Amino acid sequence: MPGDLIYLDNAATTYPKPRPVLDRMIDIYGRQGVSPGRGSYDLAVEAEELAGAARSKLARFFKCPDPDRVIFAGNATDALNLVIQGLIRPGDHVVSTRLEHNSVLRPLYHLRQQGRIDYDLASFDGQGFIDPAEIGRLIRADTRMVIVNHASNVLGTVQPVAEIGRVCADRGVPLIIDAAQSAGVIPIDMSAWQVGAVAFTGHKSLFGPSGIGGLAVSPELEIQITRFGGTGIDSHSLTHTPTFPHRLEAGTLNLLGVIGLSLGLDFLEAEGIEVIHRREMELLARLRDGLAGLPGIRLYGVEDLSRHVGLMMVNVEGIDPEDVGAILDADFDIAVRVGLHCAPLVHESLGTAPRGGVRFSLGPFNRVEEIDRTIAAMRLIAESGKRSGKPR
């Protein structure tokens, strides 16, 4: 990490990436970086085997029964669009939540503006949790799917997906989860939780590069084809290949990203997902406790960290969140995310709209001394805000 930078924006992307992952990714791509599935020569076959091995790893990781049901996409947003656009039919109803990222909210809003669907959003309680019973109450006879953010990118709260999955299964409605913040942090068992599809991204807690993500799809869930193009097979037909995984993939795969994602999974397995999560939560508890003792700082949704990932949001009395972030960056070399975090309805519910808040998101490479430096910096900022007496 350059200089003395304290990087606390891991919810946006994990940084730095593990050097062994980067080095091996470039090495493998340098030796085998041809188009997978686009030729019968040995190197093309080897490239296809790399992609297949990555699918198998991801299927085991998410407890997806069929590796061919692991679809590669550009990121979690891309994957969510695949499943939303591919499942809805005119007149459908969708249930989601006010915790969602714009990767869910904007596709749903767009489809409603077109007159194609309607949707309802479940609220969350004062600590940032969804009540599965409310999901059940919102499901209607015409509900096509339920979409839930597994871990909030604003509050860090982890939703009771297994319970929500039972509610959805009892009503015969597929559950889709956005695992952008949870994949690689919280073990996910889509079979046991009765989840229809998991949308994930590679560049966060899976330690891969940006530009790669995907969708793990249950064998019971059929998704319509919404993208059409070359798949490397059935080239004689003008109809897009209907079988998985090609059904939802069009064009040449991002093989470099696939390789990096596969190596990121290896790194995660070697380190231990539980070990990394426990370390991040210990640091988060230290940060929370340090900030909670400072006058003029408000914390959101961190009273109970038992169902949480390593991020939290705060505000400083008398100082705009954007100014807090700028001061942390310029004066203390601390990188954080400020604003609405692409989740405007969370902030509307919290009363922090339109300015949002200051998000600290921890990663596997943060250290105790960095947390202590951050607490000290926030103390100075809070004191300056108190002296200014300016309303937020």
Shape: globular
First-to-last CA distance: 33 Å
CATH class of the largest domain: Alpha Beta
How would a textbook summarize the main sheet?
7 strands, mixed
| Number of helical elements | 11
Write the CATH architecture name of the largest domain.
3-Layer(aba) Sandwich
**Number of DSSP strand runs:** 13
Low-confidence stretches: none
Do you know the CATH topology of the largest domain? Aspartate Aminotransferase, domain 2
What is the N-to-C order of secondary-structure elements (H for helix, E for strand)? EHHEHEHEHEHEEEHHEEHEEHEH
Strand order of the largest sheet: 2-8-7-6-5-3-4
Mean pLDDT: 96
Our count of domains comes out at 2
By CATH, the superfamily of the largest domain comes out as Type I PLP-dependent aspartate aminotransferase-like (Major domain)
Radius of gyration: 22 Å
Quaternary structure:
single chain
Provide a descriptive summary of the structure in words:
There is one protein chain. This protein has 392 residues and is an alpha/beta fold. The chain folds into 2 domains: 6-16 and 272-388, Aspartate Aminotransferase, domain 1, CATH 3.90.1150.10; 19-270, Type I PLP-dependent aspartate aminotransferase-like (Major domain) (Aspartate Aminotransferase, domain 2, 3-Layer(aba) Sandwich). 39% of the residues lie in helices and 15% in strands. It contains 11 helices and 13 strands. It has a 7-stranded mixed β-sheet, sandwiched between helices. Strand 5 (143-149), helix 6 and strand 6 form a beta-alpha-beta unit. The longest helix is centred in the first third of the chain and has 21 residues, at 42-62. The chain starts with 5 loop residues before the first strand and ends with a helix.
